[in-house]
Amino acid sequence: MVEVQRYPFGQHAFNDLRDNAFATSNWPLVYVLSDEKHLRAYIGETTDTLTRMSTHLKHDEKRLLTAVHLITSEYFNKSATLDVESMLIKYMAADGKYTLLNGNLGLADHNYYQRDELYEEVFREVWNRLIAKGVVSRTLDHLDNSDIFKYSPYKSLSFDQRQGLLTILHELTNPDVQNILVEGGAGTGKSVLAIFLFKLLTSEDHQISLREFSDEEAEIKSLLASLRQTLPNPKMALVVPMTSFRTTLKKAFKHVSGLSPNMVISPSELTKQHYDIVLVDESHRLRKRKNLGAYFGSFDKACEALGMDKHTCSEVDWVCKQANKAIFFYDESQSIKPSDADVDVFQRLKSAKSSATHRLLSQFRVKAGQPYVEFVDNLLNGRIDDDEVFTAKNYEFEVFDSLSDMVQTIHEKEEQVGLSRLIAGYSWPWASKKDAEAYDIVIGDVRLRWNSTNTDWINKTGSHKEVGCIHTTQGYDLNYAGIIFGEEIRYDPESQSIVIEQDNYHDRTGRQGIKDPAELQHYIINIYRTIMLRGIRGTFLYACDDALREYLKQHIPVHNVGQIQPEENNVVELEPYVNSVPLFDLQAAAGEFGTLNDVSDLDPDKHEEWVAVPEGVRVHKDMFACQVIGESMNRVIPNGALCLFRTDLGGSRSGKTVLVECIDSVDADSGSRYTVKVYESFKTEDEYGWRHQRIQLKPNSYDNDFQPIELSDHQDQQYRVVGEFICLIEQSQ
């Protein structure tokens, strides 16, 4: 369905490009320009390849790129190539090999004939061909679960988000407006809009690639041009109050041209300089001077630096003082602690003459949509009819009678799709913080520990075995969330209402100073509402209080307890480790190859077989080649293909294709002691540090009969990762 061909990029390469029938016949295609030395890339699509390449050679940045990969298919039409280009930008940014030179995408995804039926599979083949060529390394399934993908600036916007973008740009050009509030519930895409906008405002004119499919895009270009006249190079920052989520967004900014992790800052860092434009994501978590714990000192120091009264101001005031224009992304319902700035502060801000407000309404995190959001709100606030039961065909929503069953279900979902986590109300002390052997949550025969880190816990290896709290999950997306309603929340059948047991609520900074029980109930209800809106595919519930569990069961379904020759090229002479690498016969390697710890130790004069590497690949002494036999990886590696590998360097291998030595067995597919598979690792931590709890070696084949190889803790000693797949050298004929 798809072909990917590599050419040098430069004036001298046009004769080679003219030999490509797609490039010379005005056929729509997609291309990737790249540079292996500086690891920069640009992705585009065109129907006039030669003219487009000539244009790129005149561009200050793109002309420095050294290779072009043409992605061609007889199935391509203009709509399809625009779609493939868009998807490639999103996924290659998340893959992280290259820093992309691309600007923002078009505002909206566009539908076209057979998009779902045919072109989803076409794109998967495009991606697999790019893995084979060494352009990308991680699988689509792996990237789908990464926060770097979820919070990439290369996202298309919903109708609501596009209207919000237009509102913000209009107000940024309005000299009478200083503060802009974008309101929206959990899952309405506030973070995506904030990051898209940040990238748009920091891009130079030539980097903005909105395609003018609509009047909206033409209007945005006009507004940006107007803004450039007053702010040609705006000094900007993205403020994120929560440490964990701030760490995640810094990662998302790392591999995007024009963005830097340093642009994502904490509220206290506002004291360092004044900004033209400040965006604040999760602004409902900006703080005031109450229940700050260890942060009291930093808060007071910042107030002093800004000349503000520490007793009357909040971090909202810091933003307003340090920004000529401030954009707050806000959800009143996600204020979950007494230290959060008062709702009144935002109400006054909204009512000020120098402020403008826009509201996002569409829910697109949770597949059950807005009806689910409204149901959760009514359920937790006792506004639900006695006979109402919520179900959705595309959403798994169940209440469990057994916590053990829910924990097991979350573990199964983690194995199947990843990003499945347990979350609980803060109704147990954090004993394991001081004693790593202690259990925090003990219910029947279930023993669990709180999150072992506050920073980026969602993405920590083994976190599905722990329990997160609101502070480590707010702002994140999950595939499945298993919610434990703790001992601080119960249901009173007589009053038919949810009530709070203050003595069982152990978030010290979340309850100190609260004298009105209704205020504490407001925060705790907001906590459960927020964590119930984390799961994209499903949400599972267990309640410690029997009466609350029965109440949930009235309205939620109850859970009921699978040797080839080197590629011909123009190289006259093979020079070891200059343009060639050693070739090994894995079928005959028995023990020799397996005991070779570093192929860079190989004496070129004594090794007989060498193979030329593909043009454009930078050769290292730890590279080698071998033939891969079998059909278990045929989506990327055809049977009999000659492949380039690099000696395993350790580090994260998850989602990558690796060559593994089977110490005590023979792979049934290849007939040798070596197998090539996609590596996934599931780790756990004990007193001796991190160790593999389970390793999965997954096939990537059109034949669904191939099953993953599951390695338990004791079995992983029987397998050794020898190398990481770089690219194909030659396919079998």
Automatic annotation (TrEMBL):
InterPro entries noted in UniProt: GIY-YIG_endonuc, LexA/Signal_pep-like_sf, P-loop_NTPase, SLFN_3-like_DNA/RNA_helicase
Domain GIY-YIG positions: 26-100
Organism domain of life: Bacteria
CDD domains noted in UniProt: GIY-YIG_COG3410
Alphabetized SUPFAM superfamilies for the sequence: LexA/Signal peptidase (SSF51306), P-loop containing nucleoside triphosphate hydrolases (SSF52540)
Descriptive protein name: GIY-YIG domain-containing protein
Originating species: Marinobacter persicus
